[in-house]
Amino acid sequence: MSRKLGIRIREKHMEKEFDSQDHVITTIPGIGSLTASIIIGKIGDIRNFDNARKLVAFAGIEPVIVESGKKTVRKAISKRGDPLLRSALYMSILSATRSNPVIKEFYDRKVKEGMPKQKAIVAA
Fold first, then answer.
1. What is the pTM of this model?
2. CA triplet 24, 59, 94: central angle to 5 degrees?
3. For FRET with 109, which of 16, 18, 33, 118 sits at 20 to 30 Å CA-CA?
4. pLDDT tens digits along 91-124
5. What is the DSSP letter of 63?
6. DSSP H helical segments within the chain, as ranges?
7. CA-to-CA dists, residue 59 to 10, 67, 70, angstroms
8. How many angstroms separate the CA atoms of 108 and 67, rounded?
């Protein structure tokens, strides 16, 4: 059996197992059962995080802030958190910018305001 076939079989098994349970996260447009499995597997019980900032830091999607004298610049995301979680969130946002009307409106507005598309995806 090829490696790709083995991965597809495991993914299908994960989706089947996940679909047999009831998770509210899959009601969010842009998040399918495989992505939801990754997010839930990495985060666990969301109540373990006292606030959204701690969850954002755990995922490594908080902006890096550089301060120098009078200047404060927000750069790219920190990427200090879990790379698989960050990847799952990124992929779901790509999908959500097409299928979730709230995220799509936010993304389109940011791009129209002049924000680069990649940065608008991260902001979404």
1. 0.70
2. 65
3. 33
4. 888 888 888 888 899 999 999 999 888 888 888 8
5. E
6. 3-19, 33-43, 52-59, 83-99, 101-112, 117-123
7. 24, 23, 29
8. 29
